[in-house]
Specification:
Elements: H1 26-47, H2 54-57, E1 62-66, E2 69-72, E3 77-80, H3 83-86, H4 95-107, H5 119-131, H6 134-137, E4 140-144, H7 149-164, E5 169-172, H8 181-186, E6 195-198, H9 212-228, E7 239-242, E8 245-246, E9 252-253, H10 256-268, E10 273-276, H11 291-294, E11 300-303, E12 315-319, H12 338-353, H13 356-371, H14 373-377, E13 381-387, E14 390-395, H15 414-426, E15 429-430, E16 432-434, E17 440-443, H16 451-484
Parallel strand pairs: 3-15, 5-6, 5-7, 7-10, 10-11
Antiparallel strand pairs: 1-2, 2-3, 4-12, 8-9, 11-12, 13-14, 14-17, 16-17
Length: 490
């Protein structure tokens, strides 16, 4: 497939030694831009924490952005399919978001108000409730939390523990709910015994080795057995938290039938069901909220990322009879972010009024249709999957032993996934990695992506996979030739 080259443009800043108002052109400006870019990256490496993540794999310095496009300090332009880890439903600097923020700034309204009522907050809550599943919204209460999704997860755990008087939680293998202590306990890498881990159904790497409806049914039966067996070691929990699509876990959509079973199992045992819609919400999966695919009504929804219209905002929305908190039982200094609420209201309304959830379903299906043949064309592509505009491509070692059966999936290949990410960046495409072993290339484009941009993303990604596959084949051939030796096979 053809590669669309990244444009190179001069950075609009006078270079060192220029007279006021003067500007270098051509090679001189480009060289200064590259020097500025490299200097900023060097200073970041010297000053920032070793815990930094995206900056390691994406050595770019964004200076301007609009929609799907980011421009770096070195003048290169990129198509951004990371979208702030799914935060930018409308892409960068959408006009309706900028207008909403400017309106608040120009009004003289206070920007910091704790949890006081304001017209901006009232408008946000009204629009949010308008988008929620009707049966859920009619009995809903909202708690504004600290600015990140993990804060809302912590609040949800405190809520159900207070409401039930129980302490344990149920979560799922491969889950990701945030980086604070309680959220980490419920995420896939934790080992704390206060959270019981349950199998999350998937087709490609089914924990029971069968996949499909049968695998999902076995996962549901496992959950029932754990809760009903008095010797399981798992007492009745305060709640269950699940993601309708595991994002960081490798873009794994939960089967709708299984999600309905989880709702039945929890309701029958008076266990509140918490649905984490931090990444799946606001049209991302092809429905405004991912729970709408299965038709369930959860007890609690955790919301963040896109609801703030690119600015930090997180809330918990829950059934009114769970609202047993005493005043001050959960708080946070920055839970009244007026600019985020204004940007969020504009984003929610735009997605709703312009049918962007439905468009995400259509464009996502088209992208999957184009990408799935890669698994047949390249032996390093194990699986292509997704829902709406959450798409994942799992890279595997084509010569590794299949597991658990001879026709099972090959071992994950994180080094190949990282190579695809690098090749994408060379072609002006920003993608994320995820999955159990960081072997899944993830696409999270804004819901406003155009048809032309969609084709460009697919072309660049396919070219990157092709380049990595060719290199890997050449490396394997070189290794085999080396093993032959001068006197034939060893």
């Amino acid at each position: 497939m053809a590669v669309t080259e990244s444009a190179v443009v001069p950075v609009e800043a006078p270079g060192e030694g220029e007279s006021e108002g003067a500007r270098d052109t051509g090679a001189g400006a480009a060289e200064r831009a590259r020097a500025a870019h490299e200097g900023i990256l060097r200073r970041q490496s010297a000053r920032e924490s070793a815990a930094r993540t995206y900056a390691r794999a994406l050595p770019i310095v964004p200076v301007r952005a609009r929609g799907l496009t980011i421009e770096g300090a070195d003048g290169r332009r990129y198509l951004d399919c990371l979208s702030g880890a799914g935060t930018l439903a409308l892409g960068h600097n959408h006009p309706v978001v900028l207008e909403a923020v400017r309106k608040v700034l120009d009004s003289g309204a206070p920007l910091h108000v704790l949890d006081l009522a304001t017209p901006v907050k009232d408008a946000f809550t009204t629009e949010l409730f308008r988008t929620l599943p009707p049966r859920f919204a009619e009995r809903a209460r909202i708690q504004f939390c600290g600015p990140a999704g993990t804060d809302a997860v912590e609040a949800a755990f405190k809520l159900v523990r207070a409401a039930t008087g129980r302490s344990g939680m149920l979560a799922f293998t491969g889950a990701y709910h945030g980086m604070t202590a309680g959220a980490l306990e419920a995420s896939g890498g934790a080992t704390d015994v206060r959270v019981a881990r349950l199998p999350y159904p998937q087709d490609y790497r089914c924990p029971f080795g069968v996949g499909g409806d049968h695998g999902a049914e076995l996962a549901a039966r496992w959950t029932e057995s754990l809760l009903d067996d008095p010797k399981s070691g798992v007492p009745l929990p305060a709640g269950m938290i699940l993601e309708p699509v595991q994002g960081e876990g490798g873009v794994i959509p939960a089967p709708d039938t299984w999600t309905r079973r989880m709702r039945e199992i929890t309701r029958a045992r008076s266990v509140p069901l918490i649905v984490d819609e931090v990444q799946t919400g606001v049209g991302r999966t092809g429905a405004f909220w991912a729970v709408e695919h299965s038709g369930i009504t959860p007890d609690v929804m955790v919301l963040s990322k896109a609801i703030g219209g690119s600015l930090p905002l997180a809330v918990v929305v829950y059934r009114d009879d769970l609202d047993v908190w005493r005043p001050g039982a959960h708080a946070g200094t920055f839970r009244g972010n007026q600019l985020a609420m204004a940007a969020g209201t504009a984003t929610l309304a735009y997605v709703r009024e312009h049918g962007l959830a439905e468009r995400a379903a259509t464009v996502g299906a088209r992208m999957l249709e184009r990408l799935r043949p890669l698994a047949a064309e390249f032996d390093c592509v194990g699986d292509v999957r997704g829902r709406g505009l959450m798409i994942g491509i799992e890279l595997v070692d084509p010569e590794g032993p299949p597991h658990p059966a001879p026709d099972g999936p090959r071992p994950a290949a994180p080094e190949l996934a990282a190579a695809v990410q690098r090749e994408c960046l060379r072609r002006g495409l920003i993608v994320e990695l995820g999955g159990r072993r960081s072997s899944v290339v993830r696409l999270l484009p804004p819901l406003t992506i155009s048809d032309e941009q969609t084709s460009a993303v697919l072309d660049r990604l396919a070219d990157a996979v092709s380049a990595v596959s060719a290199t890997a084949r050449g490396d394997r051939r070189h290794e085999r030739d080396g093993e032959q030796g001068a006197d034939g096979p060893r």
